[in-house]
Amino acid sequence: MSASQAEGEALKDGKGLVMDDVVANANHERYQATADIDIALRKTYDYYPSHRAIDFYNRYPEDIKRFADLGAKALRTSINWARIFPNGTEEEPNEAGLAFYDRVFDECLKYGIEPVITLNHFNTPFEFYYSGGWKNRELIGHFARYAETVFKRYKNKVKYWMTINEINMILSLPLVGGLINPTKEENIIQAKYQGAHYQLVASALAVKIGKEINPDFQIGCMMGAGMTYPYSCNPEDVWEAYQENEKEYALIDVQVKGVYPYSLTNKLKREGIELDITDEDLTILKENTVDFVGLSYYSSRLTAADKASLQRAGANLNSTLKNPYLKSNDFGWQSDPLGFRITLNELYSRYQLPLFVVENGYSALEKMEDNNPIEDDYRIDYIRDHLKELKNAMDDGVEIIGYTPWSGIDIISASSGMIEKRYGLIYVDLDDEGNGSLDRTPKKSYHWYQKVISSNGADL
Fold first, then answer.
1. Residue ranges in the chain whose pLDDT is less than 70
2. 237-240 contacts: CB < 8 A, separation 24 or more?
3. 217 within 8 A of 200, measured Cβ to Cβ
4. Is residue 367 classed as helix, strand or coil in its secondary structure?
5. CB under 8 Å to 5, separation ≥6 — which residues?
6. Which residue among the candidates 248, 359, 389, 420 is catalytic per the annotation?
7. Maximum Cα–Cα distance across the chain
8. Could you give the C-alpha distances from 106 to 55, 100, 110, 144, 156, in angstroms and in order?
9. Could you confirm whether 420 is annotated as catalytic?
10. CA atoms in the 13 A half-sphere facing the CB of 63
11. What is the predicted pLDDT for the residue at 316?
12. pTM of this prediction?
C-alpha cells in the first residue's frame, strides 16, 4: 500500500499537501484533473478520498496485527514526503511526521514484519507544482535532504528501500509521476524527460547517501512492469512493441547500469531535445546504482502500428489494447499469469539483479451484505496463478527476493480515487462518498493466503 492511499489524516500533525489531497475521485473529475490539475484547484469538492482514506494513520496497530496474523513477513508501504517536509523546502523536518513512522515501524518489528519502504510513492509535496514540479532542478537537493533525514532516523528499523515508485509513470502521466502539467508545456516530451532526469539523479544521490549512513541498506528502484506484446507478427507491430518496451525500460536502465541507453539518447536527439545534464549528474548516476529492481505487475500490454480500429482494454493508469486471448475483470483489466513469468525473465536477463515484486493483485467490485465475508475466489485464482508462474520463473533461474500482493487491505485506488475498486485481502467498510464505519473484515482470500505463507508457497 502507499501512504496517500491508506493513511488519511491528510492535514494532521503538520502534514503538507500532495497531489492526491487536492483531487476527488472518478465521479468528480479525477481523470480530467490528473491530466490538468488546475481543474481541481479551481473547485472545492465535498469529498477528498485521501483526507480520510482507510485511516491507517490511527488504525495501524489493528491493521499490522492483522498482517501479523496473516503471517506476513514484510509490509510494503511508503513514507509521505509531505509529512516530513510539508512544503518540501523546510530546513528542519516535522518531528510529528517522523514520530508517526517510528510508531509504524516499531509495530511492524514487534511482529517480525520487515518494512519495505518507498521514499516517493506519488507524494511529492504539492507546493513544488507551482515551481514546475520535477522539471525544476532544485528538487534534487530537496529530495536528497528528505532521503538523508529518513535514512538517519530509521537506519536501524528499515533495511529495504525503494527510491521512486514506478518511475516510468512520469512518461505516461507526468502530473501523477512528476507534478508536471502537460497543458502548460510547449514541449511536453522535453518536460517529461527533463523531470525524469532530475528524478534519476535524485534517486542516485539517495543511494549514495543511504549507503554512507548504513552500508547494509538494500536500496532499489521500482517500475510499473508488464511486457508489451505485438498485436500480430506483422514486423510493424513487432517494432511498435519493441519501442514501447524500450521506453518503459529506459529509466530503469539508468538506475541499474548507470548510463543512458542508446535507444533513449538517439530518440531525444532525433526529436531535437537537449536536456540539462551535467558531467556531475553523469558521475552520480554511474557511481550510485541500485541493489535490486522492484516492480508492479498486473498484466501484460498490447500494441500495434495501427491502433485506431482495435479495441482497448481497461488498465491501471497505462492504456493498452485488448488481448483476445486473455480474460478480463470487472474493470476491463486483463489477466496474464504467463506474462508475469515472461516479464520476470526479461527483467532478470536484462539487469542480472534480484527482483522484488511489490505489487501484484486483482481488483473487483465487492460489497459486504448482512455481515457475510467476501467470497473472493476470483482473487484467490488470480494470485494462485501468478504465484505458480513466479515459482516457474524461479525455476528458470530468476532471483526473487520478495513478493507482496497488492494489497493486504482495501485502499483508495491511485487511478480512480475509488474504493469500490477493491484489491485487499481485508475488507474495509467504506464507500465512494466517504461513508462507512471503516471496520475491517478478512475476506476468503485472507484465510487462503495464510495457508500459502505458512507453507512457504507449497500449498496453493
1. 309-319, 330-331
2. 237/303, 237/304, 237/305, 239/305, 240/303, 240/304, 240/305
3. no
4. coil
5. 20, 50, 53, 411, 412, 413, 414
6. 359
7. 64
8. 18, 10, 6, 24, 10
9. no
10. 26
11. 53
12. 0.95
- Dihedrals φ, ψ of 95, to 5°? -65, -35
- Known catalytic membership, residue 138: no
Q: Please report the pLDDT score of residue 314 as a whole number.
A: 57
Q: What is residue 179's predicted lDDT score, i.e. its pLDDT?
A: 97
Residue from 7, 107, 114, 166 carrying the catalytic annotation:
166
Does residue 182 contact residue 253 with C-beta atoms inside 8 Å? no
Residues 6+ apart with CB under 8 A from 92: none
The pLDDT assigned to 460 comes to 84
Q: Quick one: pLDDT at residue 317?
A: 54
Dump the DSSP string for 222-277. EEEE-PEEESSS-HHHHHHHHHHHHHHHHHHHHHHHSS--HHHHHHHHHTT-----
- The Cα–Cα gap between 29 and 10 comes to 20
Residue 436, burial from CB neighbour count under 10 angstroms (0-12, 13-18, 19+): middle
Q: What is the reported pLDDT for 254?
A: 98
Written as nine digits, the cell of 274 is 537537449
Domains and CATH numbers, the chain: 3-454 (3.20.20.80)
Q: Give residue-wise pLDDT tens across range 418-445.
A: 998 899 999 999 999 999 999 999 999 9
d(CA 78, CA 114): 13
Alpha-carbon 362 to chain mean position? 15
Q: Cβ of 11: how many Cβ atoms within 10 Å? A: 12
